Amino acid sequence: MRYIRYAFLAALAVVLICVALANRGLVTLQLLPADVSALLGFQETISLPLFLVIFGGIAAGLLIGFIWEWLREHKHRAEAARRQSEVKQLQRELRRVKGERDKDKDEVLALLDQAS
């Protein structure tokens, strides 16, 4: 299974390198549209190779997706934590009740009851 993972990662690396080599041309990115930047007097541009723009877009999309999913699943994690604390509280109560029940028993019989 490890070799399959390494083969997949190697193939992915080759594909990404091919995409990067095929898209080396410079593109100009603007922060705002031309009309809006002229109105505000704030014109910020940067020239980058196209493959950096593509990979940056993929990375930003993955990051936004991970954060979105983490926020969406918050209610499930909170419910699981609440149930876990409830289970711990019930286990403590069960040990207390068993201790009260076994208080007057012979020690050997109490140990046998606890083991089962």
TrEMBL record:
Matching Pfam families: LapA_dom
Residue runs in coiled coils: 73-107
Keywords, alphabetical: Cell membrane, Coiled coil, Membrane, Transmembrane, Transmembrane helix
Transmembrane segments: 46-68
Entry GO CC: plasma membrane
Keyword Metal-binding tagged: no
Residues covered by the Lipopolysaccharide assembly protein A domain: 39-94
Entry annotated with the keyword Protease: no
Name listed for the protein in its UniProt record: LapA family protein
